């Protein structure tokens, strides 16, 4: 059974059980470069329009050599875009955000729509061109090379809510959402329209799934009310996914959503998402048994391995016990791909990365 069939059977896109639970992981730059050197493989990077997504869609050769069952692709910066590094080390990305490298992720220093007050201000914003063919050269390369053997996921994370947040600033967005400023819902619509076009370009090139990514929750609960989600955001996600299905009915729609978002899971299913990621562990409502029992017939799951404590700091025995539990519960009867809940960062040793992969494969075998 090759990796492509393994994922399709695990996510119930094809009849029959897989031989084992599929494995996936993302690596930060330092880990990516470490394993590229160790394996003697080129460390290829696809620079995404938003910097942190780069580490989702880069390094496929290294990931596959280490045991990943999927290939991740996405839009890159345009070949016409020239990133200029300022004297203070900051830069502007294609969204016109001023960026700097933080200790783990990138930080946004200035937001291009920080002064927006009206729909006219949103209309004046200059979006990157989602149809620039140079953005998809790497995606085309990987799809052509790996389509027969691996499941291909097109990543458009930082999609609607998070893209708007990054354009406006978190505090401004939340305050203006709460006060009912008309331009906010309009910006959500424009973000959705932009990323829909990116998703369609990836679908046209042959991805099997589109991965949407926005965070609706914190460590303890939702960032806003269910009513606000339904009124301001849900219609735009629904329109996006309906458009993807119209373009290709068998495309798989995946949502990455951090936080304690169990109260929204039925709405998320009603929008049309097929796979829920990352099933963030350690937050209310996300125990593997609770999630599997209540939503196992509605979603396939992807993720669930804790990287806030277990991967960097837990003992091997603790990590192995967690992997065994997730495989045994979320993977029962299929419907699960195991992965860390986010990009593996520099606080995780290379040895622990390899231990995670080996242990996931050990406990993920069906009938073993």
Task: Give a structural overview.
The protein is built from 15 helices and 10 strands. The mean pLDDT is 97. The chain is globular, with a radius of gyration of 20 Å. The strands form 2 sheets. It has a 7-stranded parallel sheet. Strands 2-3-4 form a 3-stranded antiparallel sheet, with no helix packed on it. With 368 residues, the chain is of the alpha/beta class. The longest helix has 24 residues, at 182-205.
The fold-level CATH name is TIM Barrel
CATH class: Alpha Beta
Number of helices: 15
Which structural class best describes the helix and strand composition?
alpha/beta
CATH architecture: Alpha-Beta Barrel
For the record, give the distance between the C-alpha atoms at the N and C termini, rounded to a whole number: 16 Å
Tell me the β content. 5-15%
> Which sequence of strands runs across the widest sheet?
1-5-6-7-8-9-10
Computed CA radius of gyration, to the nearest angstrom: 20 Å
Order of helices and strands: HHHHEEEEHHEHHHEHEHEHEHHEH
Approximate helicity band: 40-55%
Number of domains: 1
**Shape descriptor:** globular
Number of strands: 10
């Amino acid at each position: 059974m090759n990796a492509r069939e393994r994922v399709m059977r695990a996510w119930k896109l094809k009849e029959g059980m897989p031989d084992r639970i599929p494995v996936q992981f993302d690596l930060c730059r330092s880990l990516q470069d470490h394993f590229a050197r160790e394996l003697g493989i080129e460390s290829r990077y696809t620079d995404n329009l938003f910097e942190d997504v780069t580490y989702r869609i880069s390094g496929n050769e290294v990931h596959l050599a280490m045991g990943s069952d999927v290939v991740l692709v996405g839009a890159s910066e345009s070949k016409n875009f020239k990133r200029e590094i300022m004297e203070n080390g900051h830069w502007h990305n294609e969204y016109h955000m001023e960026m700097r490298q933080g200790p783990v992720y990138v930080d946004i220093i200035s937001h291009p729509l920080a002064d927006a007050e009206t729909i006219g201000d949103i209309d004046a914003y200059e979006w990157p061109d989602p149809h620039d063919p140079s953005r998809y050269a790497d995606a085309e390369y990987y799809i052509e090379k790996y389509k027969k053997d691996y499941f291909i996921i097109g990543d458009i994370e930082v999609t609607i809510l998070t893209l708007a947040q990054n354009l406006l600033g978190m505090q401004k967005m939340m305050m203006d959402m709460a006060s009912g400023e008309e331009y906010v819902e309009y910006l959500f619509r424009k973000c959705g329209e932009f990323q829909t076009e990116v998703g369609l370009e990836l679908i046209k090139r042959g991805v099997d799934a589109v991965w949407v990514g926005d965070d609706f929750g914190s460590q303890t609960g939702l960032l806003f009310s269910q009513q606000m989600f339904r009124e301001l955001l849900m219609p735009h996600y629904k329109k996006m996914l309906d458009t993807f299905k119209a373009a290709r009915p068998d495309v798989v729609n995946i949502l990455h959503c951090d936080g304690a978002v169990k109260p929204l899971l039925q709405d998320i299913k009603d929008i049309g998402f097929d796979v829920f990621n990352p099933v963030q562990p350690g937050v209310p409502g996300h125990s593997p048994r609770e999630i599997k029992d209540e939503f196992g017939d509605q979603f396939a799951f992807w993720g669930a391995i804790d990287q806030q404590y277990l991967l960097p700091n837990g003992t091997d025995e603790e990590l192995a016990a967690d992997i065994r539990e997730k495989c045994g519960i979320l993977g029962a009867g299929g419907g699960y791909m195991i992965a860390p809940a986010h990009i593996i960062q520099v606080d995780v040793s290379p040895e622990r990365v390899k231990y995670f992969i080996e242990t996931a494969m050990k406990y993920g075998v069906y009938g073993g």
